[in-house]
Amino acid sequence: QVSTAWKLSLLKLNPLEKVPSDIEVARAQTPKDIDLLASEIGLLPSEVDLYGKKKAKVSLSTLDRLKNRPNGKYVVVAGITPTPLGEGKSTTTIGLVQALGSQLNKNVFACVR
């Protein structure tokens, strides 16, 4: 089984001393356009239905094209009681993705709704 590393262009992070509010975090980062992200992770343009520049749906036919690739891991973050600072499922999910990607060099993806 061969794993193919994605060729992601990383967004710059600016660590802060003080823990910022949620709105400060949201305003501090400009999201990557989804068509660029899709191409970086190997999706074909015909497999991605864009909804503006930041959202998309991926066609189920992508599974047929990738059926001979090894399966990845799927982690569900659910049922967490938030800390007094409001750190709950979303914060934990993003933290896991950042750690797996930056510290373990894994191809990672998060879907938060």
Shape: globular
For the residues shown, what is the average pLDDT? 86
Report the biggest beta sheet as strand number plus sense, adding barrel if it closes.
2 strands, antiparallel
Helix and strand run: HHEEHH
The class by helix and strand makeup works out as mainly alpha
SS field, number of helical segments: 4
What would you report as the Rg, rounded to the nearest angstrom?
16 Å
β-strand percent reads 5-15%
Instruction: Give the distance, in angstroms, between the N- and C-terminal Cα atoms.
Output: 32 Å
Low-confidence spans: pLDDT under 50, at least 5 residues? none
Quantity of strands, as a count? 2
Helix proportion range: 25-40%
**Main sheet strand line-up:** 1-2
Question: How do the helices and strands line up, and which of them pair or pack?
Answer:
Layout: H1 22-28, H2 34-40, E1 48-51, E2 55-58, H3 61-65, H4 89-102
Antiparallel strand pairs: 1-2
Written description of the protein model:
This protein has four helices and two strands. The model has no long low-confidence stretch (mean pLDDT 86). The protein is 29% helix and 7% strand. It has 113 residues and is mainly alpha-helical.
